[in-house]
Write a structure and sequence with these properties.
single chain, alpha/beta, 6-stranded mixed β-sheet, 3-stranded parallel β-sheet, 26 helices, globular
Length: about 675
């Protein structure tokens, strides 16, 4: 990686190579009566032809940059409407959020893969990608870049032999499947499948600095086109990778290559790729310290996943041990199995505060005891889950075919794979637990709040009830304060959620997975809900993912970790991290790096399943809102991904600002 290349990509100067967007093609395809797979293949062939080979800098080692900024849809609006009538269409209708098997293809080469397939569309897609690669090779040679041309003489036609060839092959494959139209394409267990190439080269004289330079160049490549990728907000592009963890035999995967990846991210200070670090009870403190250095510079990652919870949890759901042990993370946090997992891990979301609100308005007046009311809440959770299931299972889930992506799964991935499970997020569990604690203690308990009063307060957004608002908002126990009386309610809610899905199958023969994530629902669910008994006002957002209410004040991160590790989180392994924000001033003292590392290790030892950490300064964020031109590179963590703060819509910016900042 050269300084020129780094500056160009960091300042977005490379976007100047982009051409005008391509014209609409869907109506022509419809007029010709083309099948979905023919449409996908023709579009991919066209896009590969339209791409112009570009080398951004004389020292650029990992090539390929998008010059065509758009992917014209293959269906007309009328055709999409027809597909929606007969099928459940997930998100955009294109395959997403999976972890491909790059390793097998990189080890075989596309010529060998082409010879093995009997699908003519897949052969055409391979030919189109190889032709684009050959044009890059010829362009490199014509411009005196013999080193790059020599790499492209080998990959992607033939198996990679060196670390650089493997990285370039991976870049071509990743580039290709984005160009085909799948999105939120993750990089899987990068250090696991790339390590043999790294080890080969280091044994044959490659220095650590040379290896770091290659990793940086590859990571820079992930930032070339990321603004073109599909997401709810800029930065939500799904480019995540996983480091560390164990294999099926319990051997540690974390290596010198894993360490280099962390160093590369720290050096670049850019949002992609988002790093997820698999850890367990035996992970050395030094690994947590290496991860904490990334937190300190403000990247919002690594996100930690605890093998001691996740692997048993996946096995409980029916995943074979060798598959569970190989888990990766999808776009944000959802657990997915490379190559064999076609799970749709974000197909719906349960609104915990919404469930409490339903019970509040339908059952509170007639309930004689809190236990009776809680039974209605559990019943409402089951009914809400059944409604989500019914909304999906009314017909098969339909995806467009992906002939190129199929080679990375060994099957028609649009129709499923070995695992075809569906995941449901669970939003606002802390607000629900806090609200139920108020009802238990003061409506059914000491009766200092009447049923009529709490109902009226929620319906009127606590207007004219300032004293009651202050009491329930600030004086009642909250999840995150290590108070067993409220934390036990959260345990009950999550267990009930898990039970509501247990034993139920989906339209693809898979099962349903409960989770503690929120995605954008921390805003969407909150916008549709009135005030809550815990003192949350109408429209006030939930905490992101598995986190306390925004108005909750705790004694610090220890009490929060204790609260949020009390549930049996093997029951909610669809994923969803506890999220903590630390004030940037914390890391002015280098001694706080080992303190943070010990905090993360404490979370893991307590049985937490997933953790993400953010470094923020409210003062800086407010100034960035007022003067965005001064903060183009300010990074924050949103719900399962990192983004440049000034590129976010204001509601997402405001949410980050509203989160509590912790110290060590």
């Amino acid at each position: 990686m050269t300084e020129t290349l780094y500056t160009m990509i960091r300042n977005r100067a490379h976007r100047a190579v982009r051409r005008a967007p391509l014209a609409e093609i869907a109506h022509e395809y419809a007029h010709l009566g083309l099948s979905p797979i023919e449409r996908m293949t023709r579009r991919f062939e066209m896009l590969c032809r339209e791409e112009i080979p570009v080398i951004l800098d004389a020292g650029e080692k990992i090539l390929f940059v998008r010059t065509v900024p758009n992917l014209p849809d293959i269906f007309t609006e009328e055709e999409w409407a027809e597909r929606h009538r007969d099928h459940f269409i997930h998100e955009n209708g294109y395959v997403s959020n999976l972890s491909p098997d790059y390793a097998t293809v990189i080890a075989k080469g596309l010529d060998a893969v082409r010879a093995e397939t009997d699908c003519p569309e897949t052969r055409r897609a391979i030919d189109a990608l190889c032709n684009l690669s050959d044009r890059y090779r010829d362009y490199a040679r014509e411009n005196g870049r013999e080193d790059a041309a020599a790499v492209l003489d080998v990959v992607p036609h033939y198996p990679a032999r060196t670390f650089r060839e493997a990285l370039q092959f991976l870049r071509i494959l990743h580039f290709g499947i984005w160009l085909e139209g799948s999105y939120h394409n993750t990089l899987g267990r990068f250090d696991k499948y790339m390590y043999p190439y790294y080890a080969h080269d280091t044994e044959n004289g490659m220095t650590e600095d040379e290896a770091l330079d290659l990793v940086c160049d590859f990571f820079l490549a992930c930032n070339k086109d990321s603004d073109l990728y599909t997401g709810v907000q800029q930065g939500d592009n799904g480019q995540s990778l996983v480091l560390g963890g164990t294999d099926a035999d319990g051997r540690e995967v974390y290596s010198d290559l894993s360490r280099l990846c962390l160093r590369a991210s720290e050096k670049l200070n850019m949002i992609d790729p988002k790093i997820n670090l698999r850890v367990n009870r035996n992970t050395p403190l030094s690994v947590y310290e290496e991860g904490s250095r990334l937190t300190a510079v403000g990247l919002g990652f690594p996100q930690y996943s605890n093998d001691d919870v996740v692997i048993p949890g996946l096995e409980k759901l029916g995943y074979a041990h060798e598959d569970a042990a190989d888990y990766a993370v999808a776009a944000c946090w959802e657990y997915i199995i490379p190559r064999v997992g076609a799970d749709i891990a974000n197909i719906g979301a349960l609104n915990f505060p919404g469930v409490v609100d339903t019970a509040l308005h339908h059952s509170l007046k007639n309930a004689e005891t809190f236990d009776e009311f809680m039974a209605d809440v559990r019943r409402a959770i089951g009914e809400a889950c059944d409604a989500i299931i019914a909304s999906v299972d009314r017909a098969d889930v339909l995806f467009t075919p992906h002939p190129l992506l199929n080679i990375l799964f060994g099957c028609d991935i649009s129709k499923g794979a070995k695992y075809n499970n569906f995941g449901i997020h669970g939003t606002g569990v802390a607000i629900a637990a806090d609200s139920l604690a108020v009802l238990r203690d003061h409506v059914f308990g000491d009766k200092t709040i009447s049923k009529e009063a709490i109902l009226a307060a929620c319906d009127n957004d606590f207007m004219g009830q300032e004293e009651l608002l202050a009491f329930v908002r600030s004086e009642c126990p909250k999840m995150g304060q290590d108070n067993d009386s409220v934390d036990e309610i959260a345990c009950d809610l999550l267990h009930t959620f898990s039970l509501a899905l247990r034993g139920k199958t989906n339209c693809r023969g898979g099962i349903w997975r409960a989770g503690t994530g929120s995605a954008m629902f921390y805003l969407w669910h909150a916008d549709a809900l009135g005030a809550s008994p815990d003192g949350r006002r109408r429209g006030e957002p939930f905490g992101t993912n598995y986190s306390p209410a925004l108005h909750t004040r705790t004694d610090g991160p220890i009490s929060l970790i204790r609260s949020f590790t009390k549930p049996d989180l093997t029951e909610t392994v669809n994923g969803g991290p506890l999220t903590l924000e630390f004030h940037a001033s914390v890391f002015r003292d280098p001694d706080n790096i080992p303190k943070l590392a010990n905090l993360v290790r404490y979370f893991v030892s307590r049985g937490g399943h997933q953790l993400q950490l953010n470094t923020v300064s409210k003062e800086t964020l407010l100034d960035a809102q007022a003067h965005p031109e001064n903060y183009p590179h300010l990074i924050v963590r949103i719900w399962g991904w990192s983004a440049y703060f000034v590129e976010l819509d204001k509601p997402y910016q405001d949410h980050v600002i509203a989160r509590q900042e912790y110290s060590l």
